[in-house]
Amino acid sequence: MADNDNQDATGEGESGPGKEGETGVTSAIAGRAARANVKRAGRTATRSAGHVRSGARMLSREAKKILRKHRSRIDPSIVEELEATVAEIERLRGQRPNEDLAELEDQAEHLDELLHQYASFARKSALRDTIENIAIAVVVALAVRSCIYEPFKIPSGSMMPTLRAGDHIFVNKFAYGVQIPLTTRIVGEDWISGIERGDVIVFRFPLDESDDFIKRVIGLPGDTIRVNSDRRKLELKRAGSERFEKVAREKLLDKSCQAENSTQAIENCSVYRETLDEHSYEVRYRDDLRTTDPSMRTFLVPEGHLLVMGDNRNASHDSLAWTVTADRVTAAGLLSRPDIRDLTKVEHERLELHDEGHVIQANDDGSRDSARYLAERSEPARGLVLEAWRSPPIDARAIYESLAHHYGANGTTTFESLTGKDRVEPHLASFGAKLGEMRYVREEPTSELIFQAPDTDVVFRLHCGTKRCDRPSDMASRAATVLKSFEANPDFDARELLSYEYGRAKTYPGRGQAEARFLERRFGPEQTGVHIRAWRAPHEGLAVLRDAALAELGAGPLGQTMHERYELELAERAAVTDLGPDAWVVEREGVWTIVHTDETYELLSVLACGPKRCKTQADAVALATDVASRFPIVAKERERLPELLGQAEVGKLPEVPVEPRNAYYWDHLSVVGVVLDDSHSINIEVELAPEGGLDGAISARQQELSNAEAVEGLGPVAWYADTANGHTFLFTVPESDLLVELACRPGLCPDRATARALADRVSEKGRDPENFVQKSVSRPRPFVPRGNVKGRAEVIWWPTSRFWKKID
């Protein structure tokens, strides 16, 4: 205890600089506390409650922060008082709203004085505070401008009538996610809503990213857009869909176009209401900029890109107009149509080059290209033939029966039977009811229909493939269409009787070539003189004409039919072997008729010789022999057809002119049923100077070929594989740094040797870049990268007349 007492005594009696400082601080604190107590006695707060509370909260936070960072630099006793004052402030704040505001204000002032006197080194100066506030304001403004909203001014009229030049708009930059500044990276993409067709967006121009453009989104990734040169025909095939849809558009007759820089109406311009998905908006077309070019272009939007158009459709610099000028490779320069015709069996068939710039699939860099050749092949199931026999020189009934016989149309039918329950246009049904009895047969892959125009001697034959005329009603509708056109104008050619049939049409206009293919001469009286009818290389068919000529006499294979249906008297025919294997003689009422067919010279003569010239059958055969002797010369020289029978052969019988009204006229329409498909195709892909070099590129491509085998003589490295695409060759042309893949389907390359010949031709032409490199070519660059999109245009905020108008 003594020791402790001594220590206490010693401690109390010690003196020195340290003790004096502590005593001074303690005295100062005690003095301030005493003065503060005097000030607080009976006081009320001099500031508003909100001001006091806010100031106390801020000072408390500041003190805590200073103590946390700079406690070691402050005297412990001051630290103790600071903590006590902060604790008192927090106690008073905890009593809100019933706290003693005067006490809270005094404690806050006391804390502020302590911080000012003992911790001023850690407090912000007024200048620093101002700078920080300005910096925060700038950062917030930049954040709002970069991530939320940004104002833009419209520089041109490419978006009229939606936006006019000079409009000021706000762009929502948060709508599609947040873009990291100075990059194309999007964070939180599609948080709120994804980019939709019909959205009006602002983006960095892909060809010069220092410029901002504003356009409307038409195509999303995976969409296919088809548009004509005039931009008025716009079709969309959505990603995953199999068919194109027309973009709905309605002309607004009560709307007029305005000039770009004024509200004055302009002429030669039309406004339309267009609807695309959930968006409905107005577009306009300048009629004075209209083009007659019917060609279509197809855009396949790649992943991560968009296709955009301006609302001022044919006066907008948008995806459809963006191009770059650069050198490019062309696969068609390595393999042309003459090359294919030279090395394959394709001769006269149509050979189409596809993917020749009409389908744009990417922002082309010019170093790659592909070409696809398709050779047409006939398909009977898609064909169509219409024959029109007008005023035939043989009984029309005989022609009708002969056609039915030769084309197997032995079944009798009517328009009503063919249509059944199928719906037929009323205007066609009325004509179909007039057709009466018809002959019909359907045998895959074609159908035949033989019919006559009512109350005339005109006979029609309609032949239609079952893929074109899928149902009997399709045949009936076409027959009614033919009759409708015929009654409108009996002089219509076959191509005019049945128009608007798809496919490659061929026509045979019989009027202009009648004299070269048909002869009719008459000498003497009708029943007793001489009458000759002759056909040279007839398109109608020798057999059809021969049997019709015999049928009108009641003879031949159709004699019994003519007797049963039309009560025509039967007659016997006898072969005339002296004339050839297909010569027949029929006698009726003293007139000898010899029907002679010569397939060698493609000639048919029907010679009727009456008693004034032919007393016996022998006389008729002799006269027919004279006619047949002229077949060779007539077959060679068509203009000599009238020389088959002249005045010298008939004696003194005068020639009787054939009446013009009975002039024979036969013509037909033939729509060739052909298809272009992959079974008869060649695909070639080329790449110039591939990234990573030729060896790396061909090695990577070779891995994609199954069961590939090395090939010699086709460059230093070459491979062959029999793939689903046909005979496939993959090889390099090191002289021009070129990689080539060629695939030929069996329809064009039935064997490997044919495909190899094509590959050799490509390799040979590939050694010279002039064959496949086009200089300074304008190439489309239509697609907007997703990362270039800045945001969605939402409202107009200037001019005041359109203030806060929502952008459709």
UniProtKB/TrEMBL annotation:
One protein family per Pfam: Peptidase_S26
Domain of life, source organism: Bacteria
Annotated membrane topology: Single-pass type II membrane protein
Active-site residues, record numbering mapped to chain: 158, 215
UniProt-listed GO biological process terms: signal peptide processing
Sample GO molecular function, one term: serine-type endopeptidase activity
Intracellular or extracellular location(s): Membrane
Chain coiled-coil ranges: none
EC number per UniProt: 3.4.21.89
Entry keyword set: Hydrolase, Protease
Catalytic activity as recorded in UniProt: Cleavage of hydrophobic, N-terminal signal or leader sequences from secreted and periplasmic proteins
Cellular component aspect of the GO annotation: membrane
Positions of region (Disordered): 1-55
InterPro entries: LexA/Signal_pep-like_sf, Pept_S26A_signal_pept_1, Pept_S26A_signal_pept_1_CS, Pept_S26A_signal_pept_1_Lys-AS, Pept_S26A_signal_pept_1_Ser-AS, Peptidase_S26
EC supergroup of this enzyme: hydrolase
Sequence ranges assigned to domain Peptidase S26 in this UniProt record: 128-324
Keyword flag ATP-binding: no
PANTHER family found in the cross-reference section: CHLOROPLAST PROCESSING PEPTIDASE, SIGNAL PEPTIDASE I
Family statement: Belongs to the peptidase S26 family.
Protein name: Signal peptidase I
Gene: lepB
